[in-house]
Every structure is written in C-alpha cells, then in structure tokens.
Amino acid sequence: MAVGEAIVITSGKGGVGKTTVCLNIGAALATRGKRVVLVDTDLGLRNLDVVMGLEDKIVFDLVDVVEGRCRLKQALVQDVRFSGRLSLLPAAQTRDKDTVNIAQMRVLCNELRELFDYVLIDCPAGIEQGFRNAVAGADQAIVVSMPEISAVRDADRVIGLLMAYDIPSPKLVLNRLHPRLMRKGDMMSVSDTSEVLGIPLLGVIPNEDLVIRSGNLGTPVVLSQSRAAQAFQNIASRILGQEVPLMKLENPSRVVLARLFGVIG
Amino acid sequence: MAKRMGSGDVARERLKSVLREDRSQMTNATIGAMRSDILTVLSSYAAVKDEDLNFYMVRGAAENETKLMMEAMVHSRRRAAGAERGQGAEGRP
Fold first, then answer.
1. I need a surface site. Which of A105, A150, A163, B5 has the fewest CB within 10 A?
2. CA–CA distance from A46 to each of A19, A30, A58, B20 (Å)?
3. Percent of chain A, pLDDT > 90?
4. Within-domain flag for B2
5. What's the start-to-end Cα distance of chain A, in Å?
6. pTM of the model
7. Residue A241 burial by Cβ neighbours in a 10 Å radius (0-12, 13-18, 19+)
C-alpha cells in the first residue's frame, strides 16, 4: 500500500488561523475522496476537537497512544460528516509539550501514514519543543501567515527553522485577507507578502464572518457555500497537483502584476 | 513615489527592515555602516550614488546562513585619482 504524506501546518505566531486552516484543508481533501487524519500536537492546549465540533467524542488522545495505553485506532475520532474519511487524533489536554519526544512523533507519523493518504499535523504556536515535535514526523510544511508585520516576521523565522528539519520548501497560505483594506492600500498585498517570504504561495483565504460562525458551531467552513470554502477547495486541488488560479481578492492591477512576476501559485 | 503611501506600504517597508535584521543577525545600524563603507570603496573606482546601492538579505540554505546580495548602479568610470587607484587594485594578485 502506498504511504500517505505528512504535512505540518505551522506559523510561529499564534492566532493566525493554523487550526482553522488545518481543519479545512483536511476537510476539503476528504470531500475529494482522500483519507485524512488531523493530528493536534498542541499538548495542554487542545483546540482542534472543538473547532471540529468533536469534543464530546474523545476517549483517548495522542499521549495515550504514545505511552501505550491504547491502540492508535482507538484514539482516532471519525467525523461522520465526511463519510469516515476525516479523522482526528486529539491532543492531551492535561499534559505538557515535553511529554512526547521527537522519536515518538516520528513513529506515530509513520503509523498514521500507513492508514491515511494525508496526515495533517496542527502545530502549536512558538518554536520550542511543541514545534520540534510537530515538525519531526512531517515530509512537508504549510506555513500559515497573514499580511501583518508580526505574523510575517514569525513566519520568516519558522521558514528558516524548517530547513534544519529537512523541510526546505514549505508552502505559504495567507489567511485573513481583507480585500477592502487591500484595495485602499491599508494592508500589505498578497504579492508583497509572498515575495518578502520567498516561498511559493499555496493559497489565499479571505476573511469572512462565516469563519467565526463555523468555529462557534463546530462546522468546517468547507461545508458552507462561501468564498472561504472555495479558497480551501482550491488549496486542496493544488495539493492534489491541479493548477488552479489564485482567488482574486485585490484590485485587478495588483493581480495582473502578481501574475507578471509569477507569484500566482 | 507619486502615489500616497498607504499604511500597507509602510508595513511592507517596516517588515523589510525588521527581516533584514532578523536574517542577518546584524542591527540596521551595523548594516548601514557596512553599506556606507562599501559605498566608499566603490566610489573610489566608479561613480555610485547613494540611492543606487541596494542591499538584500536572502535566506541561505541552512538555518544560520544569510545571503547578502548587493546591487549597485555604476554611472561612469571616474577619470580622477579614484580610477588610478582602481587600476592599481586590479594589478594586485
């Protein structure tokens, strides 16, 4: 059997939407018939379960698996909305980041790759042990950022660190884009941001009220009819190797310029 | 730039300045001093205007590596003492 790909979703900075991006890329891949598992590696600050609306379904967690208190399959929570194709491996809520080590994470990711087409690892904020664990078992990385100085600065630092983990070519997802502010020149443009970071753009996600509402309800954005849902489907298509034009969020001249410079991923 | 600088443009310039420091692990003051020294050296060989010397800090292959890229627009060769010194420099091994 072919083994799946393990992709870590990371950002450095907290609050840029890693968890939402991780869930919705996974959900979009599941709607395309792929078997996907989302791994919450934020030990002590478990979040992915509530964003998915699966918080009541958890019996065992990642630490239980690593410490041998249950079998891997016992800890996996299936999301019935995706015909069993989307699963969650929840984080432990009561343990520290250093409960698990890099070698254990590698073993875990290898096991998950046998069972799924895509293993999406939701990385905690920061660049300490939690980051190192999350990155350890990954073959690829998606760096989530938004066009703000602090978020891009942290993303730049993380891109540098990923090289040390043999992930030399991470892809960028720019989240929380405000088209109105961009048109007014009050937000860094998509092309500026991706040029400064110097990594290929995997996708752009417009800021929409619906993303907040989806989080409140515990429903993936992908299940709605919205631009954000389309944006996540576009990212899934690109991961599956299809060429999809970047969603137009800025004014036309900027988009044309970006295309001229080959920024469109 | 004729167009009004939006706060997005200000953010981009501030970001570039911060990343220059982060990537090179040098302060902007140090980078500025280095730049001015390089400008002095270049000026003794060719006419280079301050605004025509650009520095870029690009991530290297390893975590602690930074590629410093420099781009200078050279207007014309000086015919005065500078040019002679330049020829002298070329003659050295």
1. B5
2. 10, 22, 11, 35
3. 87
4. no
5. 30
6. 0.85
7. exposed
Residue B87 lies inside a defined structural domain of this protein: no
Cβ of A196 within 8 Å of Cβ of B61? The answer is no
Q: Is the pLDDT of residue B1 over 90?
A: no
Tell me if chain A has a CB within 8 Å of the CB of B15: yes
- Please state at what angle helix A149-164 crosses helix A129-136, rounded to 10 degrees: 60
| Within a domain: B60 | yes
Where are the alpha helices (H) located in A56-208, listed in sequence order?
62-66, 72-75, 102-115, 129-136, 149-164, 179-183, 190-197
Work out the average pLDDT over A73-101: 93
Q: Do A188 and B63 touch (CB under 8 A)?
A: no
A54 or B62, which is more confident: A54
- The answer to whether B53 and B42 have CB atoms below 8 angstroms apart is yes
- How far is the alpha carbon of A191 from chain B, nearest alpha carbon, in Å? 11
Supply the range of the domain harboring residue B27: 10-79
Confidence of residue A261 (pLDDT cuts 50, 70, 90): low
Nearest to A189 among B4, B7, B8 (CB): B8
When divided into structural domains, chain B yields a total of: 1
**Hey, is A75 helix, strand or coil?**
helix
Strands A86-89 and A36-40: parallel
Question: Is B4 inside a domain boundary?
Answer: no
Question: Which residues on chain A are in Cβ contact (under 8 Å) with B19?
Answer: 152-153, 156, 196
**CB contact residues (below 8 A), chain B span 50-69, against chain A:** 58-59, 61-63
**If you average pLDDT over each of A27-36, A178-187, A241-250, which comes out highest?**
A27-36
Rounded average pLDDT over A157-169? 89
Q: What is the CA radius of gyration of chain B?
A: 17
Query: What is the predicted pLDDT for the residue at A165?
Result: 86
